[in-house]
Amino acid sequence: MVAVLYDFDGLLIDSETAGLISWTEVYESFGHSIDRDHWLAETLAGRGPCMPKEQLAALVTETIDWDTVEALRLKRRDELLVLRPGVREHLAQAEELGALTGIVSNAPDWWISQRLAAVGLEESRFDVVITKSAGLAKKPAPDAYLAALDKLGATAAEAIAFEDSPIGIRAARQAGIRCVAVPNAVTENFDLTIADLVLDRIDAVPLAELLDRR
Questions:
Q1: How many other C-beta atoms are found inside a 10 Å radius of the C-beta of residue 213?
Q2: Could you tell me which residues are beta bridge partners of residue 159?
Q3: What is the pLDDT of residues 54-86, one digit of tens each?
Q4: Is 171:145 a contact under the CB 8 Å cutoff?
Q5: Cα–Cα–Cα angle for 27, 31, 33, rounded to 5 degrees
Q6: What is the pTM of this model?
């Protein structure tokens, strides 16, 4: 039995990049530059979507109509929320191999359902979806990965995880699962060498080949 486990934000869906670009454009519309170091620090810490409203408000003299600004930003973000390169091909490889598949994420279940539907992927194609809604300790704790293995009836030795960030990699490794890192335009700024392998796109190495390396 083989279990292929995927992170969601930044790994399957390019939400890390979409968030940064949409906020960068908001700052630029007010004549300022976003504090990229702050953004990266928040992402590295895994504190959820960075929302630097207070920082922008401190830079401008006028009152910001946040309802209007945020509506426009979310529209722009959603335009950028696409599948990352190679994801469809990788999922097809997993299906061809008869592997069990799962999503293991710190995001809430509604977000994953919504975003999968938006890119035309059926949530039912995954054998298990573990989210923060399950009430488990968040990554970098291994709890979500361990829960996925339990639901799939698989062992850590039979699984492989794909992640884009250090906290996700640590979660998989603490669960005893091999982990492949696939950084995006944001997380490529981090040290991901704790992963067993780092790829520039998820399908850069055929899944069958990765599984044979066990």
A1: 10
A2: 3
A3: 899 999 988 999 999 999 999 999 999 999 999
A4: yes
A5: 50
A6: 0.93
